[in-house]
């Protein structure tokens, strides 16, 4: 039998209290501190700063979170102060009839207040200004270093020493109410700010992006900070949003303002690859641009002449995608599996749980539609590059992430 956690006579979980101090001392961030505080108080908690920005939430459900942020019955609001200076509020709703000890509540709020003071979120610029800045970076309309620096400073972002970019993709797999995309942005920003306090997040606003797509700007010259922020964002998303899968792309560090646009597109590429080529069993994947392998070779083509990359895709894989869409076949996935199996038909059949004759028939259809013979080295190379071009362009095959209703079939509109 397991040994129960030590408790005080008043029923206080000392182990939960220890976990708060551990989270503070380790710099795990406000979301982890609040989750530990929720366990110690046996309560749902929502933490806001002095400007009423939500910094962290530990709730049982989205409905519980909304209730915490309203004036619902049973919600107590505790003002947080450090040296008589207001730093925020802690909204508390007990999960049982037992009341928390005033001493424990005071201890918890003091720890939380000091942590808020340490990592206080910067003053937030208007949401529209942030969105426009992100749009211009992704659209390659903002390339001059001085312009980038001035626009970044206007939204409270210091990118002069260096910065990196995260792109988050969230796909919903359960029925939910409206507003889930906004919750993805909020949770992603909470996670990012837990690791890099000056981080700013925004919806990408790209109408062709399926699901929810969030761009996070991390003002730090350290690659380790970006890596830590990636893990923090994924943990916060998983804790806050059930029934979703997530893919995160992380750029290299931009050494100066002029390189931030390049970093944004690196993160976008990494997210495309993570989503379309992910191998995580739980559907959650973080991929750094440095780890995209051969895909990196296509980024310059995407940046300098995306039309040429689109043409190469059109000459190789697009006919297969169109055929799959029209007849609900699996030609693209068969080519992927065939290449992964090093051109072995039996291995492909095993991967797809399909008879070898079916695989040979599909590969013959591939040759007829694309003009490329998988039996030749040249044909396999072109098809492999065509698949990579498809992912760099952000186009998903039938049944992939871009099949959500209203997504237009992919991130780059397909030809009629």
From TrEMBL:
Residues 331-389 form the PucR C-terminal helix-turn-helix domain. Residues 145-273 form the CdaR GGDEF-like domain. Pfam families: GGDEF_2, HTH_30. InterPro entries: CdaR-like_regulators, CdaR_GGDEF, PucR_C-HTH_dom, PucR_C-HTH_sf. PANTHER family: CARBOHYDRATE DIACID REGULATOR, DNA-BINDING TRANSCRIPTIONAL ACTIVATOR ADER. Belongs to the CdaR family. This is PucR family transcriptional regulator. It comes from Baekduia soli.
